[in-house]
Fold this protein.
Amino acid sequence: QDKSTGVFLGDRYTIRVFPSIFTMGIINSQPPVTITLPSEDRFLVVGNPTIPKVTHNNREISLGRLPHAEAEAVQIAHILEAPPVLKEQATKQTIMYRLQLANIVH
C-alpha cells in the first residue's frame, strides 16, 4: 500500500503469478479476458440479517448477530456499487425474492 495515497499495488496494476516461465509464455500469448459485470440490481449483498428465534430440542435458540458481518457487507456493496440488504431489511421474503434475480450473491 502506498503510504502517501493509500492505493494498493493491485489497484493500479494487474498482478499475475506463474508457476514457470513456460506457463507465463502460454498465458501471455492469449488475448486478454474482459469481464462485464451485471447491473447493480443483479447483485445481492446481505449483511447481519435479523434472524428469528428457532426451536430445537424444545429449546428456543437465538442465533444472534455475527461480528463485523454488516461492515463486510457494506464494504462489498461499495465495491460492487450496489445497495446492501442489512439487518431488518433482510427478511426471508425479501432475500428469497432477490435471490431469484441476482447473478452475484454475497
Observations:
- The CA atoms of residues 51 and 63 lie 7 Å apart.
- The helical segments are 9-12, 21-28, 69-80, 92-101.
- The two ends are 26 Å apart (CA to CA).
